[in-house]
TrEMBL record:
InterPro entries: Creatin/AminoP/Spt16_N (IPR029149), Creatinase/aminopeptidase-like (IPR036005), Creatinase_N (IPR000587), Pept_M24 (IPR000994), Pept_M24B (IPR033740), Peptidase_M24_C (IPR032416), X-Pro_aminopeptidase_P (IPR050422). Keywords: Hydrolase, Metal-binding. Residues 9-146 form the Creatinase N-terminal domain. This is M24 family metallopeptidase. Belongs to the peptidase M24B family. CDD domains: APP. It comes from the Bacteria. Residues 317-538 form the Peptidase M24 domain.
Length: 610
């Protein structure tokens, strides 16, 4: 029945395209803010195709020129998932970056075709590249007036009406006025009159506001225009604005209706406006050009200062991690006792973890969809369990859980992200499982204890986490670390720890004191099991006797026991064993005061010295 619905939607879209004189249309996963997560009103790709992943796109031709006339584009993370969720009778499966929508259309559509796209959902650089690819085949890329998917989506949800709320200076550690002044100085230095801030977490950071418009990320749907004089305009739906918010923003911030954003761009005729091509849609560049303004491509000036956490934000993370650690201990003890009985499945495990996190009144949301992955599913690094894919956690297998929470208290706030891999009894894990997990652990420790000179970037550190796996002739396909926000996005740039290039554009960004990253090496055996160990780490200055220049290292923020059954102590060096014992001692000291009874007894047993 569900597949019939998607077939009907595809047919309706083709009729709508033909009505508009279009030969095809490209459907991205993004919204008008180019964010990782989108509101239900913007889930056009999911509604049309059934695909539930976080990265992907579709191309639909109005006529069946060749093949199926439609294609889904995903990268290697979703090779399995896309085939489970999207009908192969309706769509070709295409792998990115080997190909993309423009390349596929150039191959399948005839000369003279007019291919539509929504300029408020695509980045300008994608548009320019796609235009070149299609022009070589005599195909025109056409911005549409109104999205054709919206025209056929009869029960499309409305955007969230949740209010935007003040986020106190005590939590942020800096006032909005101070942040706006920093950006104003940058604008004057670069010769720009203003900048358009489109990323929702940048808007939230700049104005010290939060919201509830996107699941897993506490932001409000809005735009900001920040000017070189330190003033700013906030474009947001009027029903989301309270008198408290207006008072919090102050006289230097003018609140305007969200619907006025595009017309407001016409006010910059003859002026130079900084716009981030990675985070702002093509429609903004088009509107500025049409108005006679001069859009200058520049990175969002909030990105780097947002990544360098204030002392208040750093402490907020520590506090959130302490709450989170207690929840994880309760969960891991529960898994160790219940999963071997054979009645716990991936969905019920994820729900139980949410229940344990919810013991803290400060939990406001998860920070992303929990990756609750049993057996072969654990070998899919970005697996997302749903009713269709859900399986029982098999006894005598590996279970991987990657999860996080958004915590907001009166005095502190933070965002967590942690992965633990555990053995579900009865019996013992295989020698290979123990070997691979121990190599992952050794790589984790190597990166955690790294000392490096100021100016070092994440690409230069990435090998440390992989070296012990490489010695065994194995590797993992994802990055080793991403930035993390403060009661904001769980994935935050610009810093990354990863092999150079690819999706990790921030790999070359030098690490700076105050940056928070994940440390998450792994190993995945397709169809059998997967292993990942992930903690969050804070970049801090370190003192080295006799050192020349300034040096940095990492402070561990996440404290949850590691599964001892998957560690071969004989494979660890003396210093690595000492690291594990020291780490477990800190886990015990931090979490024991929050636990009692069987949970406390389990914690003490799991954190005993190796």
């Amino acid at each position: 029945m569900l597949m019939n619905a998607h077939e009907a939607r595809l047919t309706d879209l083709r009729k709508e395209l033909q009505k508009r004189g279009l030969s095809g249309f490209i459907v991205p996963i993004s919204d008008e803010h180019m964010g990782e997560y989108v509101g239900s009103y913007a889930e056009r790709l999911k509604w049309l195709t059934g695909f539930k992943g976080s990265v992907g796109s579709a191309a639909v031709l109005a006529g069946d020129y060749s093949g199926k006339g439609a294609a889904m584009f995903t990268d290697g993370r979703y090779t399995v998932q896309v085939r489970e969720q999207v009908s192969g009778e309706l769509y070709d499966y295409e792998d990115v970056p080997a190909t993309g929508p423009a390349e596929w259309i150039a191959k399948h559509a005839p000369k003279g075709a007019r291919i539509g796209y929504d300029a408020w959902l695509h980045g300008i650089e994608w548009v320019e590249a796609a235009e070149k690819v299609l022009a070589r085949k005599g195909i025109e890329l056409v911005p549409v007036d109104g999205n054709p998917v919206d025209a056929i989506w009869q029960d499309r949800p409305e955007p969230s009406a949740a209010p935007a709320v003040p986020y106190g200076d005590k939590l942020a550690g800096r006032s909005s006025a101070d942040k706006r002044a920093e950006i104003a100085d940058w604008l004057k230095e670069e010769g720009y009159d203003a900048t358009i801030v489109t990323a929702l977490d940048s808007v939230a950071w700049l104005l010290n506001i939060r919201g509830a418009d996107i699941d897993k990320m506490p932001v409000a749907l809005s735009y900001v225009i920040a000017r070189a004089d330190g003033t700013a305009d906030l474009f947001i739906a009027k029903d989301k604005v309270s008198s408290d918010l207006v008072q919090h923003l102050g006289n230097a911030v003018t609140v305007r209706d969200r619907a006025d954003f595009e017309p407001a761009l016409a006010e910059f005729a003859g002026k130079t406006v900084a716009v981030d091509p990675e985070r702002a849609v093509a429609g903004i560049f088009h509107a500025l050009n049409d108005a006679g303004a001069k859009p200058a491509r520049a990175t969002d000036p909030a990105i780097l200062p947002k990544a360098i956490k204030t002392a208040a934000e750093q402490q907020g993370h520590r506090d959130a991690q302490a709450r989170d650690g207690a929840a994880l201990v309760r969960f891991l003890r529960w898994i160790s006792e219940e999963a071997p009985k054979g009645h716990v499945d991936e969905l019920s495990a994820a729900a139980k973890l949410r229940e344990f996190r919810g013991i803290s009144p400060d939990l406001k949301d998860a920070s992303f969809d929990t990756i609750s992955a049993a057996a072969g599913h654990a070998a899919l690094p970005h697996y997302k369990v749903d009713e269709d894919s859900n399986i029982t956690i098999p006894p005598s297998s590996i279970y991987l859980c990657d999860s996080g929470g958004q915590y907001l208290g009166d005095d502190s706030a933070g965002t967590t992200d942690i992965t633990r891999t555990v053995w579900v009894g009865p019996g013992e894990p295989s020698a290979e499982m123990i070997d691979r997990n121990t190599r992952v652990l050794k790589g984790y420790i190597q990166l955690d204890t790294a000392r490096f000179p100021l100016g070092t970037n994440g690409g230069q550190l990435d090998t440390l986490a992989r070296m012990h796996l490489w010695q065994a002739g194995v590797d993992y396909g994802h990055g080793t670390g991403h930035g993390v926000g403060s009661f904001l996005a769980v994935h935050e740039g610009p810093q990354r720890i990863s092999k150079s290039g690819g999706a990790f554009a921030g790999t070359g960004t030098p690490l700076a004191a105050g940056m928070i990253l994940s440390n998450e090496p792994g190993y995945y055996k397709p169809g059998e099991y997967g292993i990942r160990i992930e903690n969050l780490i804070l970049t801090v200055p370190v003192e080295i006797e006799g050192a020349e220049g300034d040096w940095l290292g990492f402070e561990t923020l996440t404290f949850v026991p590691l599964d001892r059954r998957l560690i071969d102590a004989d494979m660890l060096t003396t210093s690595e064993r000492e690291w594990v014992d020291s780490y477990h001692a800190k886990v015990r000291a931090l979490l024991a005061p929050q636990l009692d009874g069987e949970d406390l007894a389990w914690l003490e047993a799991e954190t005993a010295p190796l």
